[in-house]
Design a protein that fits this description.
Helix content: 10-25%
Largest sheet: 12 strands, mixed
CATH topology of the largest domain: Protein Transport Mog1p, Chain A
Strand content: 35-45%
CATH superfamily of the largest domain: Mog1/PsbP, alpha/beta/alpha sandwich
Shape: elongated
Radius of gyration: 35 Å
């Protein structure tokens, strides 16, 4: 069935328009000007049209005289009468006439955001004085610069549900039309221009889309032609992009009283009953037997289990009003209930996350060896029960468990005082096995991924083109305590040098390291350097410095934007991230005498410098090193835990890499990302999660960073699939 296009003389269209032609005559400056159009009637035997016709001219009114001068022409097209000759009743020759039709483009069109007009050109071959759709031989578009009173949008919304789908998956595209009519002409097309069939004749505004197997992003368009209340033809086109994604890594959910916790698919869960709301988790085990669900029964640990843990929800139980306070109370309770007087639990790292959540890591040292399941039983009793003195099921160790004296304990806690809801996720593993489980531990306890009951997981896929990673820059300023009390610790600081160099070196990032002391802003050695030997020398400044440790003060002085020694040396470099690492075994002093220092409002926060503190936890109440680290999204390390320097410096280096060379996830700033669900491909090949030759996700930087042999070549296509939490209203 032919569609009629309203005919109007182009002369009535002259007005304020921005040319947006279908040919290549766009204004190269990209600026909005007044565009004018005019027509000339061509007589028979014209050199362009033997049978006569129309010349359509468009251009910009550069001299603003409200007329189109010859020097202002940018487009000239001819539409000729077709030469078919008929005779009227008096025997005079009649030619099929060239006609021009005009349709109005509504606002929010994919081609013309402010609306505009579309010109249709052709020959009236059926002599009905109307330009039918099959008579159109050429078109041009004029987009308004905003001064044209264009029609309001007729496609109110174009939605895709979902917008990210798995390969060979399906989605529903739906256009919401203002005042829909049976005579509306709706056309769906893919990005190649192929016309797609809508759901049905009665539901032309809906397209049931079936994706193919090729991963990527695909754009679909819907166009509509409809008559407005005055009978004018109104056009509009909108587009939507569909992402065809690979499946993310598998995840699982633990539903508690008020929240649900999302975990990697690296655990088998076994419900535990008694005065507890939660579950025991076993890393990479065989399935738990059916009788594990009996109340106050003996719950056997699956054979070959090395990593154990739990997820639980409880109230504060008068242990504090913040996650940090309650965590300290729980750890103290565990410490007081270890089997022997010589047993101890030492925090070696802590990070305060957004919203006050706390992620922390501990070393547990026992005088006599113990099975992981037996130690987990103590933790459940002291940390997970939902009432004071409550009881839980007995946990039965597996026959394959190995007793050890050294454990690594990782935990993340979140507390809502209004709901009196404490969410705990924890893992426990023998220290000798911790390295093999580092990735799953990080994905489980480095951030608290919980949501309200009823929340769901949605799929997202991000695409990037790999950049030259060696052009990414990361600068580091180390501030080393050189007082007499540092004699023991300082001599061991060089042990972190090689780990730092290896980690930052594997990232392929252009890095520089500068070192000052807690009593001076003078850069040591040759200043900023990437020479390994020089860095190691700079990290050992001696023990004859001032006993008045002023690490923050001299850091600020060195980083002063005008006279700072670091600034005058040209650092941080343009385009480089800056990390500040303060190392001290004493509380900080600000100035010659204690002066007010606001950890949340200072030079570091203002400039986005991330601060790390290697300090004594016992000094926390007297020091602001750890407070500054928290406020700048850094990390805190116990200076006495020398064995943890390697992993800590790895975090410092990789966080800097994620900031300067990482690929930031598009939804990380606005949604909770389930980092354990990340799946990464480079040029279609799966890349493993690995700190050495793979990738890692850094929540504080909201980015994925590649290391070692996995660093993508320039121009490679990086594909990252993941899930995010969609909260129920």
């Amino acid at each position: 069935m032919k569609r009629k296009i309203q005919v109007a003389m182009l002369a009535v269209m002259a007005g304020t328009l921005t040319a947006c032609w279908d040919d290549d005559n766009d204004d190269p400056s990209g600026t909005a000007k007044t565009a004018l159009i005019r027509t000339e009637v061509l007589a028979v035997n014209n050199e362009h049209c033997a049978s006569g016709g129309l010349r359509i001219i468009a251009g910009y009114d550069d001299n603003q005289n409200a007329q189109l001068d010859e020097a202002e022409y940018v487009s000239s097209k001819y539409i000729c009468n077709n030469g078919q000759q008929r005779s009227d009743g008096e025997g005079s020759a009649i030619f099929d006439q060239a006609l021009v039709g005009v349709a109005f483009i509504a606002k929010d069109d994919v081609n013309c955001p402010a609306g505009g007009q579309k010109i249709f050109m052709g020959v009236d071959t059926n002599a009905n004085s109307v330009l039918d759709s099959d008579e159109v031989t050429d078109t041009q578009i004029l987009c308004s610069d905003g001064s044209l009173n264009a029609p309001e949008s007729v496609i109110n919304a174009l939605t895709a549900s979902p917008s990210t789908i798995l390969a060979n998956g399906s989605s529903v595209l739906e256009a919401t039309i203002t005042n829909p009519s049976e005579i509306d002409a709706i056309v769906w097309k893919d990005e190649a221009g192929k016309v797609l069939q809508p759901r049905s004749q009665n539901e032309q505004n809906i397209l049931d889309l079936q994706a193919g197997s090729e991963l990527g992003q695909y754009t679909y368009r819907v166009s509509i032609e409809k008559k407005d209340t005055s009978g004018k033809l109104v056009l509009q086109t909108k587009s939507v992009t569909i992402t065809v994604s690979q499946a993310p890594s598998a995840t699982q959910t633990v539903s508690l009283d008020t929240r649900q916790v999302f975990l990697p698919d690296d655990f088998t869960m076994s419900s535990v009953t008694g005065d507890i709301t939660g579950t025991v988790i076993y890393g990479n085990p065989q399935p738990a037997p059916a009788n594990a669900l009996l109340r106050l029964a003996a719950i056997p640990t699956p054979e070959n289990t090395e990593l154990v843990g739990f997820v639980a929800e409880r109230g504060a139980l008068n242990q504090g009003t913040t996650a940090e306070q309650i965590l300290q109370s729980m750890v103290n309770a565990v410490s007081n209930n270890l089997p022997s007087a010589g047993d101890h639990i030492d925090q070696y790292s802590q990070t305060i996350l957004d919203g006050g959540d706390v992620s922390a890591s501990y070393n547990i040292t026992l005088t006599s060896s113990m099975l992981p399941t037996n130690l987990l039983q103590i933790m459940l009793q002291q940390m997970a029960v939902n009432q004071i003195g409550g009881s839980t099921d007995a946990l039965t160790p597996a026959s394959t468990e190995v007793a050890v004296t050294d454990f690594q304990f990782d935990i993340v806690v979140s507390y809502s005082q209004a709901a009196d809801s404490l969410i705990i996720t924890a893992t426990l593993v023998g220290k000798n096995n911790a390295g093999r489980y580092a990735d799953v531990i990080s994905a489980t306890t480095s951030e608290n991924i919980s949501a309200a009951l009823g929340s769901t997981l949605e799929l997202q896929a991000d695409w990037f083109r790999a950049v030259e990673q060696t052009t990414s820059k990361a600068d580091f300023l180390f501030v080393i305590d050189n007082s007499g009390s540092m004699s023991d610790e300082q001599n061991k600081l060089s042990s972190m040098t090689q780990s730092f160099i290896n980690t930052i070196g594997a990232s392929g990032i252009d890095f520089k390291v500068g070192t000052i002391t807690t009593d001076s802003d003078v850069l040591r050695g040759t200043g900023f350097t990437s020479d390994v030997n020089q860095i190691e020398t700079d990290f050992i400044p001696g023990i004859y410095g001032s006993g008045n440790e002023r690490g923050i003060y001299f850091s600020e002085k060195a980083l002063d934007p005008v006279q700072g020694t670091v600034t005058l040396a040209g650092y941080p470099r343009v385009g480089a991230s800056l990390s500040v690492v303060i190392v001290s075994d004493e509380p900080s002093h600000y100035g010659s005498t204690p002066q007010p220092f606001d950890p949340s409002q200072n030079l570091f926060v203002d400039n986005g410098y991330r601060v790390y503190a290697i300090v004594k936890p016992g000094d926390a109440s007297l020091s602001q090193y750890d407070d500054l680290a928290v406020s700048t999204l850094g990390k805190v390390l116990n200076i006495d835990q020398i064995s943890e320097y390697d992993s800590f410096m790895s975090t410092v280096a990789n966080n800097a890499g994620a900031t300067s060379a990482g690929y930031k996830l598009s939804l990380a700033a606005t949604h909770q990302i389930l980092s354990s669900s990340l799946a990464v491909k480079v040029d279609g090949v799966d890349v493993p999660r690995s700190t050495s030759d793979g990738w890692q996700y850094y929540p504080l930087s909201e980015s994925v960073v590649f290391t070692g042999t996995a660093i993508p070549p320039v121009g490679a296509q990086i594909y990252i699939a993941y899930q995010y939490i969609k909260t129920t209203p």
